[in-house]
Specification:
single chain, mainly alpha
């Protein structure tokens, strides 16, 4: 049963890293495997042999989550962009209580609110980082570019090398609780390309080779980033947990502005989608609280 649970955790982690606004790191915390995962990644040579069952079952679930959800996400983003954005916003809103507790109630439930220069400045800095991204992401040009990348990838040597770099960036963000690696990819303008590539893997067509040329270097970058960046992330969360979570809180709160489709595009379906996003995240948090509490 424990191995099956690790597969399920991998599926949810994979889904989280496909959906902009959802943090894979948060899902790892929710399932109680975050510290275990971070420890393995930060020192793989010493831990892979000991944790191979956990890693294999988790990786199987991760692949299932990404491959099974890729086509659905590509379809939703192309056909229902505003409603999809509202679902993402709901998921972000659902993660706010947990991040607030980690940032300003570090002692857990029943403790006093902690407000000091360190966590306040970190929160403001995290939110401020998002402001130029909000402005850049809400232009008509950026929205048109997002639609273009959601349909096809322009594959060449330069873009293949760029995908390697994006993989490193994505892996660095996907393992931090609260920060969505896929949302960072959305801000960088490559999320649509990645989702379309995943969708084109099956069935095998002429577009499958292009998809592999995009995803293979991206995957290599992800592995590199996970190994080398997890050490730094583990250090920051261990030595400066409250300011780190406060910065993450500011980043996540500011990310709502990047995803928001505009008041004129909100309809009843969009409101229902936002509520569904909140409920989905809250439901995941209650599956196995583990180290999240």
């Amino acid at each position: 049963m424990q191995l099956l649970y690790f597969v399920l955790a991998g599926v949810v982690f994979g889904l989280a890293n496909v959906i902009p606004g959802v943090s894979g790191g948060t899902m790892a915390v929710v399932f109680g495997i975050y510290e275990r995962l971070l420890s393995v990644l930060s020192d793989p040579l010493h831990n892979i042999k000991k944790e191979w069952k956990f890693l294999v079952t988790f990786a199987i679930g991760l692949a299932i989550g990404i491959l099974a959800f890729g086509k659905l996400m590509n379809w939703a983003l192309v056909n229902y962009p505003a409603q999809s954005a509202m679902f993402f916003i709901g998921v972000i809103l659902g993660s706010i209580p947990m991040l607030f507790k980690s940032s300003f109630l570090p002692g857990g439930k029943g403790t006093k609110l902690v407000i000091n220069p360190a966590n306040v400045i970190a929160f403001i800095a995290g939110f401020a980082i998002m402001i130029p991204m909000i402005v850049a992401g809400n232009t008509d040009e950026a929205k048109e570019a997002a639609k273009a990348t959601a349909t096809a990838a322009n594959v060449n040597i330069g873009n293949i090398l760029l995908m390697l770099v994006y993989g490193v960036i994505a892996s660095s963000t996907m393992i931090i609780p609260g920060i969505s690696g896929s949302f960072v990819m959305l801000l960088l303008g490559v999320y649509g390309t990645l989702i379309a590539s995943v969708a084109n893997l099956f069935p095998f067509t002429a577009a499958t080779l292009d998809a592999v040329l995009v995803l293979l270097p991206f995957g290599i970058g992800v592995v590199i980033g996970l190994v080398y960046c997890s050490k730094l992330i583990k250090f920051l969360l261990a030595k400066f947990p409250v300011p780190t979570y406060a910065a993450i809180f500011g980043f996540v709160l500011g990310s709502i502005g990047c995803v928001f489709p505009g008041f004129d595009k909100i309809d009843l379906v969009g409101v229902i989608a936002a509520i569904a996003g909140i409920l989905v995240l809250w439901g995941c948090e209650r599956l196995d609280p583990g180290e999240a509490k």
